[in-house]
Design goal:
heterodimer; A: about 350 residues; alpha+beta; 4-stranded antiparallel sheet; 19 strands; about 15% strand; B: mainly beta; 5-stranded mixed sheet; 1 helix
Chain lengths: ~350, ~80
């Protein structure tokens, strides 16, 4: 990349972003000299001198012994100091890297904007068409204060073509401006954490250009809505009804309400009562115990017979000859008489 | 010579690697991605600019490999 001049506003942004990447030195890498042990040795030396001056030989011997232990301790503490250069940690972009990424973003995306007060960078993708479906251009907007956060960036449809069934789905992998990164998640997160801004924007833009038909929020084939299971017409979210039995999608015209439980059903899961012809779901229909006709609960009598069987039984009862009580006859000789019940 | 290699495929990493002088972009790509990886499925850039496969790398170059097709998901 030819850099003829330094873009000072871009340098300031690069420094601000790099400031968000700076990591503190790990506490275990700080060097700490054993000064307390050294001070103790100095004190012992002074005490030994004073003891020898006063010819306190026993005290001087004990102090020498203690000094010997302290010096051994001092030596081991010094040997334990690890002054080797720290092993290189994970790559993190330098201010210069961030600056060159910003300059490359200006070159490689048609639209690149910086909102310094809002701490945001944004690029605009070309209009995206997936499997013949126009989805429009998208803005990828990054908040550089939240580079390691899951909500570091948003994907905003600039010419929204949302799925008919879900208004928040503007791309098969974008819901409510949040991109589901799928296979790109680790690489995107690494790029953000390391301050590789060009890689981040390129990864997201490439992901938006790819359709994973195995795991979309809404399949592109159903982008304009689902088809009605009965008539085959396209059904939008507002017109969509679910059959409560088979969970198939049906349009408002094809859905039928059960006359008993008032649930919505498709034509395959609803039947008519054999007597009143009202629509009912299978749960609300019962077989007549007489003729086995399928009827609704309103048409069944308490003995679970349909009106036809009920009427027929009643008329049979009326046609049957009435039983005449026989007169009481005296049984001769036994003193008993037959009495009607 | 030392080159910064950024591989945005899979886990994504950035590492400095030592290479013999005269190494081309294609040779480094094969070394990083394996012989079976197809270069046309990746955006390969040196110092942030698209390059040809036979470009010879030089000390301090920054090579990035980014897949052109990355599959998103729904959760």
């Amino acid at each position: 990349m030819a850099m003829n001049h330094v873009n000072l506003p871009l340098v300031r942004i690069a420094l601000a972003i790099h400031g968000r990447l700076a990591r503190p030195v790990a506490p275990d890498r700080l060097v700490e000299l054993p000064t307390s042990v050294w001070c103790h040795c100095e004190t012992l030396v002074r005490q030994i001198r004073r003891a020898e001056l006063h010819q306190w030989r026993l005290a001087a011997d004990r102090l020498r012994e203690e000094l010997c232990h302290s010096i051994t301790s001092l030596q081991s503490r010094l040997l334990e100091l690890d002054l080797r250069p720290a092993a290189p940690g994970p790559y993190v972009a330098s201010p210069s890297d961030v600056y060159h990424d910003l300059a490359a973003l200006q070159d490689q995306f048609d639209q690149f904007t910086i909102d310094r007060e809002g701490y945001q960078l944004a690029v605009t993708t070309p209009p995206i068409t997936l499997a013949g479906r126009y989805l429009g251009p998208f803005e990828i907007r990054l908040d550089w204060r939240r580079l390691t956060s899951d909500s570091a960036y948003r994907v905003i449809a600039l010419d929204p073509q949302p799925a008919a069934s879900r208004e928040g789905v503007t791309h098969p992998h974008v819901l409510d401006e949040v991109l589901c990164e799928g296979d790109g998640r680790t690489a995107i997160r690494q790029a953000l954490a390391q301050g590789r801004l060009l890689d981040f924007f390129q990864l997201v833009a490439n992901l938006l250009q790819t359709y994973n038909q195995d795991s979309p929020f809404v399949e592109l084939a159903l982008w304009d809505g689902e088809s009605c299971g009965d008539c085959g017409e396209t059904v939008t979210a507002d017109e969509r009804c679910l059959c409560q039995r088979c969970e198939d999608t049906v349009c408002c015209d094809c859905q039928t309400t059960c006359g008993d439980c008032e649930g919505s059903f498709c034509n395959h899961c609803i039947s008519k009562c054999a007597h009143c012809l009202d629509a009912h779901c299978s749960r609300c229909l019962t077989s007549c115990k007489g003729c086995q006709a399928i009827v609704c609960s309103d048409c069944l009598d308490p003995s679970e017979r349909c009106p036809n069987c009920h009427d027929q039984e009643e008329s049979e009862d009326l046609d049957a000859p009435a039983e005449t009580p026989r007169p009481a006859v005296h049984a001769h000789g036994v003193g008993q008489a037959l009495v009607p019940a | 010579m030392k080159i910064l290699v950024i591989n945005n495929d899979g886990a994504g990493f950035a590492n400095h690697v030592e290479l013999p002088h005269g190494t081309t972009v294609q040779e480094l790509f094969n070394r990083q991605m394996g012989e079976h990886a197809k270069a046309q499925n990746y955006l390969i850039r040196v110092n942030r600019q698209p390059v040809s496969r036979d470009q010879v790398l030089v000390e301090g170059d920054r090579l990035s490999i980014t897949p052109t097709k990355i599959e998103g998901a729904r959760r």
